[in-house]
Design goal:
Layout: H1 2-38, H2 49-55, H3 58-91, H4 97-109, H5 112-122, H6 135-149, H7 151-163, H8 167-176, H9 181-192, H10 194-209, H11 213-217, H12 223-233, H13 236-260, H14 270-284
Helix pairs in contact: 1-13, 2-13, 3-6, 3-7, 3-10, 4-7, 7-10, 8-9, 10-13, 12-13
Length: about 280
């Protein structure tokens, strides 16, 4: 019997590692093939010519900057919209939670092209709130579209984080100390669901950074239409662009997680700073 347990323990790690390696290969091999192809722009040589070509292009920098700013605005607007809504529904309107959850799923049911044409009719020239008459208003409409597209993922991430804390007890404790409702949301609720907000921000960034349909139909200079246009005109540059988009997305996610999980007053390099302080103390002594 004991021999069987030892034998089973030996088998399961092998099976687990096989699954991990298989999944890693499924994910990494296409990336490696794309990266290898992007290095073949100059015939007979392995070079980063495609990457140099992209960095020299002003259109690449402009489209990437435009999508990054639009994504950050969508994350900010989505957070300010979803966190108070989920908090209020869980605190005061628990029976309406099913309806709100169903409403948050509508962007998964309605195709983005239908949403764009709906926006154009609703916010056209003759409407009470015209958002298609200038470039700045179209930018605002695109950010609103990104918020709607990421709403199912942002809502579920924050709703799950909100379910892990006792909202009623925290609210009653804050109210007993004289805090207003807005102060409770900002000072109590937001810090307690910070990891959930970061998870929702990750998903919003990954969705909106390479989004194509809305940006293309609204004629916005975003990164998604630029990526598609490059794929139609060139061979090696789109592969380099895909690798760079992947790296930029993961770097942005790592930075967001780093800054979101830092404690108030925490130093960036505690060991290095501690070492300098010790040396300074030695000099003084």
């Amino acid at each position: 019997m004991r021999w069987r347990k030892v034998e089973s323990a030996r088998r399961w790690p092998l099976l687990s590692w096989s699954i991990v390696l298989l999944a890693a290969g499924y994910f990494l091999l296409p990336l490696y093939a794309t990266f290898q192809f992007s290095l073949g722009m100059q015939r007979g040589e392995t070079s980063f010519a495609a990457y140099h070509w992209l960095f020299a292009s002003e259109r690449f920098i402009d489209s990437l900057s435009y999508s990054a700013v639009a994504s950050l605005l969508a994350i900010l607007a989505g957070t300010l919209l979803v966190v108070p809504t989920v908090y209020w529904v869980r605190l005061k309107l628990p029976r309406a939670r099913g309806f709100v959850e169903f409403a948050s799923l509508l962007p998964l049911i309605i195709p983005p092209i239908v949403m764009v044409f709906g926006y154009m009719r609703l916010y056209g020239d003759g409407s009470l709130l015209p958002l298609t008459t200038s470039d700045s208003r179209l930018d605002l409409l695109l950010v609103i579209g990104y918020v709607v597209l990421a709403l199912p993922y942002m809502f579920r991430a924050i709703d799950t984080g909100m379910a892990a804390i006792d909202i009623v007890t925290l609210t009653e404790a804050a109210e007993s100390l004289g805090a207003s409702r807005w102060r409770i949301i900002v000072s109590v609720i937001f810090p307690n669901v910070r990891s959930a907000i970061v998870a929702g921000a990750f998903l919003t960034l990954s969705i909106s950074l390479g989004e194509f349909v809305m940006a293309s139909l609204l004629s916005r200079p975003a990164f998604g239409p630029y990526l598609v246009q490059m794929g139609q005109d060139y061979a090696y540059q789109p592969a380099a662009l895909a690798i760079m988009a992947f790296v930029i997305t993961w770097v942005c996610m790592a930075l967001m997680q780093f800054f979101a999980l830092r404690k108030p007053g925490q130093r960036f390099l505690p060991r290095l700073w501690a070492g300098r302080a010790t040396k300074k103390e030695r000099d003084v002594s």
